[in-house]
Specification:
Mean pLDDT: 85
Shape: globular
Helix content: over 70%
Largest sheet: none
Structural class: mainly alpha
Distance between the termini: 32 Å
Number of strands: 0
Order of helices and strands: HHHHHHHHHHHH
Strand content: under 5%
Number of domains: 1
Radius of gyration: 19 Å
Length: 243
């Protein structure tokens, strides 16, 4: 992709699409600083849980919601659909840019959290090697971010509704946050546990869970690609409007 094309695609995404992950990090940072300076509950465990939640729970959800609200309509959509794979390619490029930008923000947030020694180190990564910890530690945000982005985009393509897609993503987030015990103690739910680092970093299946989430995200992306090939359904959705 040329630099000019990249600038154009970023411009199409719009300011708020790219600002959302930054605002999430700044907001969490402000809350963390306020807790550390202004309250009596600023022990290292509380701050570590909050900053780890920032990169594992909040940023991936924000990226997923942005992916779900990427406009499935386009002013020239019907024209693009007459060209082989052009509209689907453009849509996946937008999704890739959103994930890449969110990943850059998450990586920077992880480095700061790790440097402050406020990252909740998962049990499988409690090893002396800093490089191993930092490298594998990126799975803290990468796995749930890919899953939320792929799932959110798939929801948008199936429901043709931004509101419904965002609501379902939020429902999944709340359910996993409240019902985490099921995901810890039921073996068949281990691959679907999105937030083990923040909630239960001591679980032994952390590393396997991270790769299983990535595998599911790739499968969801294949489904998205297949849905984007259905030109007739995309045209009907465009004609019917967007909720």
């Amino acid at each position: 992709m040329s630099l000019d094309r990249l600038r154009y695609e970023v411009k199409i995404l719009g300011f708020w699409m790219l600002a959302t992950p930054v605002l999430v990090v700044l907001g969490t940072g402000a809350v963390t600083l306020a807790i550390a300076r202004l309250t009596t509950h600023s022990d290292a465990g509380t701050l570590a849980r909050l900053l780890t939640a920032n990169i594992e729970m909040l940023l991936p959800l924000a990226v997923g919601m942005v992916a779900a609200t990427l406009c499935p309509q386009d002013a020239a959509q019907e024209l693009q659909l007459t060209l082989p794979r052009r509209f689907g390619d453009t849509t996946l490029v937008h999704l890739g840019l959103v994930v890449a930008w969110g990943g850059c923000i998450a990586f920077c947030a992880f480095v700061i959290t790790y440097h402050l020694r406020l990252w909740r180190i998962p049990q499988p990564l409690q090893m002396p090697g800093v490089l191993q910890q930092v490298a594998l530690g990126q799975l803290t945000w990468l796995s749930p971010m890919l899953w939320f982005a792929a799932f959110g985009r798939g929801l948008a393509l199936i429901t043709h509704s931004r509101a419904a897609s965002v609501a379902i993503l939020g429902g999944v987030w709340v359910f996993e946050t409240l019902a985490y015990g099921w995901f810890i103690y039921k073996d068949w739910l281990h691959p679907f546990f999105l937030f083990p680092t923040t909630i239960t970093p001591y679980v032994s299946f952390w590393l396997a869970n991270r790769f299983e989430l990535i595998g599911m995200a790739l499968a969801l992306l294949v489904i998205c690609w297949l849905l984007l090939r259905n030109s007739e359904a995309l045209i009907r959705a465009s004609s019917g409007g967007e909720g």
